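ARCHIVE ENTRY
Sequence with per-residue tokens
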Amino acid sequence: MILSKRISQLQPSPTVALNNKAKELAASGETVFNFAVGEPDFTTHPDIVQVAVDALQAGRTKYGPAGGSPAFKKAVVEKLKRDNNLEFTTDEIVVGVGAKEILFHLFLALLNEGDEVLVPAPYWVSYTAQIIAAGGKPVVIPMGDDHDAARLTPEMLEEYATEKTKAVVLTSPNNPAGYIIKKDELTALGQYMENKDWWIISDEIYEYMSYTAEHHSIAALVPGLKDKYLLVNGMSKGFAMTGWRVGYLAAPKPVSKMVKTLQTQSSTCLPPFVEEAATEAIKRGKSLMGDKIKVLEERKNIAAELINSWEDVSMIPPEGAFYVFIDIRKALEASNDYQATESLKFSSFLLENYHVAMVPGEAFGVPGFLRLSYAVANEKLIEGLNRLRQALDKIK
């Protein structure tokens, strides 16, 4: 029996696999410094938990409406106006089981066999896999070597665009690199794409975690993009609600309608008690977790200061999200046992010998890097980085 050729090309998510391996090591009794998982270490705000508890106790445990409840979609519309200066209607909103599901359904809705999607590196691990699963072809735009240069320019898009280009993926603040596409850069990209027949998939799930530069939505800067702009967001990061699995799409009606149809044939809906909690959270907005976001910024500064003190290691300046993308190519190149791009090999050595889990750059299309999530306590962050330093010294 022959299985799907498309799906057989896929590999398990490397971030999930590494996190599982770290947990197995911890379960065996070892102390593991896990910087691999992409979630805040904070619990959901107790006020939001209480809303869900109240809804459960009130018996709201049946199926909810496919695509999201009217109350939550209305709250999303109000949030997009308040935070992003974007105008949407409730029938342009689709709510799903996490932003990950929304993205998957979106690629399925947009792509025909052989359609190409421009994906700037470094990219979140699931973009390319989902594009392939949907029958498309990810076209990766390589990252430049200058860590202080513009992250994405019209010239970079132009070089990799073809007549088969169907969409481009933007991620700002970026996972894994933590950079933010600046307002002038984003405007230039928008003006360039205004005349292109491309969908613009804008993953803005880390928007509240913008520290050194302000987050902007590209369609707010270039309103002419509105009919091709597809915003994906969710409650996981900015509200510390990863396990609740709440994501949403804001898109033109033909797209939102198709994504909703797909949802009726897959997950169907979110539990009503989850949506009630998410509705309360999104109404309260960034201020709900404001103190926690300040803690993340402090951790960013701790990590950056320590890494900047190392001569053989550099990084992309972290500006948002909760990651540092560490360039270890120089340190690897100085070793007799590693090539400059063998961060996957080194990450295995790091976990097995120093019990530190970091995701290798190969997962994000940029070998020779490590992604560190600094959503951990300060003492663990410092100890984990010290162990990384020891491991790099060991391979010299």
Summary: The chain has two domains: 5-43+289-394, 47-285. The CA atoms of residues 57 and 273 lie 9 Å apart.
